[in-house]
Design goal:
about 190 residues; alpha/beta; two-stranded parallel ribbon; about 45% helix
């Protein structure tokens, strides 16, 4: 079994080979694998990955080394807890690396204004209670309801994609059927 440093290097090597092949065109890419996102979302993922690799991973390595120095590893709770944390962290790092390897940044200047699409800001009205709401369509990795960003892969996001101002969409959500009228779309 590879040690922590060996696993980390293997992950980077796999990612580098994966990215190199992608740019050369050796692999046919399925559009389902591509992750379209804003420049802001891409930069945020890069910063999170850098934080994990340069700050969190060295801290976990240090915790493992300290726990290992305490003696018998078979009954060393601190060692096992640190190893579990290492596994979780390496899993999160691999996930972010895969997302970034498949990421495509959207050039917002080339988006049309007429229909709902990724990065569109949509003002809509709930037909049941005339409540107005405004959301920005975002990639699943950028979605954050507190910031007013909903995923294009959510039920509401999927229902809105491709629609125009004035269209009424019906969306099945856990609370029942939701009827929304699109009032305004902007880029």
């Amino acid at each position: 079994m590879l040690g922590l440093i060996g696993q980390d290097l293997a992950i980077r090597n796999i990612n580098c080979n994966f990215a190199r092949e992608k740019h050369v065109g050796a692999i046919q890419w399925d559009s389902k694998e591509m992750e379209y996102m804003s420049q802001e979302g891409y930069d945020k993922l890069v910063a999170e990955l850098h934080q994990m690799e340069s700050v969190e991973l060295p801290q976990v390595r240090e915790a493992i080394a300290e726990a290992r120095d305490k003696g018998d590893l078979s009954e060393n709770f601190e060692y096992h807890a640190a190893k579990r944390e290492q596994g979780r962290l390496l899993s999160r790092i691999r996930f972010k690396q895969r997302v970034l390897a498949n990421a495509r940044v959207i050039d917002t200047s080339k988006l049309s204004d007429g229909t709902v699409q990724l990065l569109s800001k949509v003002e809509m009205t709930n037909m049941a209670n005339n409540n107005k709401m405004t959301y920005t369509m975002a990639s699943p990795h950028e979605a954050n309801i507190r910031e007013g960003k909903i995923s294009i892969k959510s039920p509401i996001g999927e229902a809105l994609l491709g629609k125009k101002e004035g269209d009424v969409v019906e969306v099945r959500v856990p609370a029942g059927l939701l009827k929304l009228r699109i009032e305004h779309i902007e880029r």
